[in-house]
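Our preliminary data section would be incomplete without showing what the modeling component actually yields. Below, a chain of 621 amino acids is followed by its predicted structure, encoded as C-alpha cells that our downstream tools consume directly.
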Amino acid sequence: MIHGVVADGIQRFDKGVLAGWPDRCILYSQYASRRLEEQTCDRMTRYSSSAGKDLLAMKRFLWVIVVFALALGVAAMTYSVSFQDAVDNAQRDDRERLEIFSELISATVNRYRTLPFSVARNRTILRLLEGRASVQEANLVLKEIAKKSKSSAVYILSPSGDTLAASNFDTPISFVGKNYSFRQYFKEAIQGKEGAMYAIGTTSAVPGYYLSCPVELDDSIVGVAVAKLELLSLQTAWHIGQGTVLAADPYGVAILSSNSKWVYRSTHPLPTDELSLIRNQKLYPGKSLTPLFSQVYSRGSARWARVDDHDYLLVQKAFPEMGWNLFYLTSHSSLTLHSMQLSAFTFLICLVGMTIFLFVQEHRRNTLAELRLEQSRRTSRIDNEREESLRLLADSIAHQIRNPLLGIGGNANLLRKKLPHDDRLEYHLFTIIDCCHNLERIVVSIRDYINLVPGPAHEFSMGDAVNRARLDAEIAIEPQNIVNWSLSIEPARLRLDESLLVKALVEILKNALEYADKNTPAIRIHGHWKGKACTFRSSQFDTQCYFLHICDNGQGIVDEVLKHVMDPFFTTKTDAVGLGLTKAKRVLQVFHGTIEVFSSPDQSSECCTEVVISIPIEEMS
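Predicted structure:
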C-alpha cells in the first residue's frame, strides 16, 4: 500500500509540475540565446565601429575604382562601336562621292572628246595642210572654235610635231612654231589612234588634259588636231564633306586634288624607269613627285593611309575610262571627334548613374542599419524587463520544484530506513531517490545557465585561467588514470570576467576528459594570437583574436551527434543534463567570441576531437 501511494504521488508530481518544467526551461533558454545574440550584435556593431571605419573607407575606395573602371569600360566600348560605325558610314559616303566625281569628270571630258575630230575635218584646216590656205586664216578659225567650245587651246601639228596654227597665236604663250613631238598624245595620233593625256604645258606652264586625233587626207595622215582642256575648275566642286579628293594619273601621280599641297606627289614610290618616262615626256616639269602615302595599311575592313604623320581613311575607285584612280581621304581625327564626344558623354552618364545608384544603396543600407540598431535598442529596453521577470519566474519555479523534491527524497529515504527490509520495496525507494537527485541536478544546471551574467571585468593571464580550469575539471571528473596534459599557451592578458571564462573552460575540459582514452588520457591545449581573423555570426572583423585549441585523444564524435553537441539538454550519457557546451557557448557569446567543435572519429590521432574558441582582441588590455 505504501508503495502504491508513493508511486501515485510521484506520478502526479511528474505530470503536474515536472511535465511542463523542461519545456519552460527550453523556451527560456531559446529566448535567452536569441536575446543574447541581439544584444551581442548591437554591442559588436558598436565594438567594430572604430575598426569598421577603415574597412568601410577601403570598401568605398574600392567601389570608386570599380565604378570608374566600369564607366571607363563602357565608354571604351561605346567609342569602339561608335568609331567603327563612323568608319563604315564614311566608307559608304566616300564611295558615293567618288561615284559622283567620276561622273562629273567623265561628263566634262566627253563633252570635248569630239572636238579634235571637228577640227580635223574643218575645211580651212584641210586647206592649210594642202597648202591652199594661209596660217592666219587657220589661226582665226581655231580661235573661233576655242572660243565657242570654251576650251583652253586648239592647235594643229605637222607630221613632224611642229605647231602650224593655234588658237592662242596672238598671246605671249603662243604655241605656233613649237614642237611637241615628244608628247604621248602626238605619238598616238600620228599612228592613227586617239590620244589623251594629262600634263603641265611646257609653253604655258598651265596643266591641262590633252585630246588628239589624226588629220587624214586621201587615206594618209597629214597632221594632228589637238584640244587642251583645263580641269582645275573641277576641284571647286570637290570641296564637299570633311575629306580630301585626289585624282591620280596612270603612273600614280596626283594631278587633281581638293588639297593643293598634295598635287604632283605620287601615291607610291615611283620606279626609276617610270620616272625617266615621265621626265622624257615632260609631263610635270619642275615637280619632285615625292611620295604622298608613307604607309598604306588595313585595319579591319578599312584601308588607311599615312600622309605627313597623319592617318586617313582611304577609299579608292578605279577610273578605267581615263586610266586614273580616284581617292577619297577622311582624316582619322574627324572620325574620332564624334566618337570621343559620344564616349565622353557615355562615361559621364555611366559615372553619374552608377554614383547615384551607389549613393541610393549606401543610403538604403545606412537607413536599414539605423532602423535595425534602433529596433535592437528598443527591443533591448523592452526585453530587459521581460528578461528580469523571466529570471525571477525561473528562480521561483526552481524553488517550487526543489521543495517537493526535498520532501519526496527525504520521505523516501526515511521510509527506506524505518520499514522492514524488503528488496522489492527498497528498489523502488532507491529509484525515487535517484530520480530526485537527477531532477536536482537539472534544476541546479538550469539555474546556473540562467545566471550566466558577466561580473566586473579585471585583467588576468590566459595561462592562469587555463590552469584553474584544468584543476577544476580534474576534480569534477576524477579520471582513473593520470592525464597527460600538453600545454602551449602564448602569453596573453585579457580584461573580462575571469570566473565566467573559467566556467566555460571547465565545461569544455570536462567533456574532453570524459571522452578521452580511458587508459592513457591525453589533453592538448594550444593558445595563440591570430590577426584579422575574428568572426561573429559569419561576419569578418578587421581585428585580432586570441584562439584556444583543446584536443583529446578519444574515439571522436560521429556526425549525427556532432551537429547537436551545442543544443540544450542534448547528451549521450544517462547521468548528464546536456548543458555543458551550451553554457560554454553562451559565455563566449557574452565575450563576443565563438566556439566550434571538430571531430574525426575514423582516424587514429592524438587529436580526434578539437574544440576551438576565439575572443576578440578589443576585450584585452
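The radius of gyration is 55 Å. The CA atoms of residues 46 and 52 lie 9 Å apart. Preliminary results of this kind motivate Aim 1 of the renewal.
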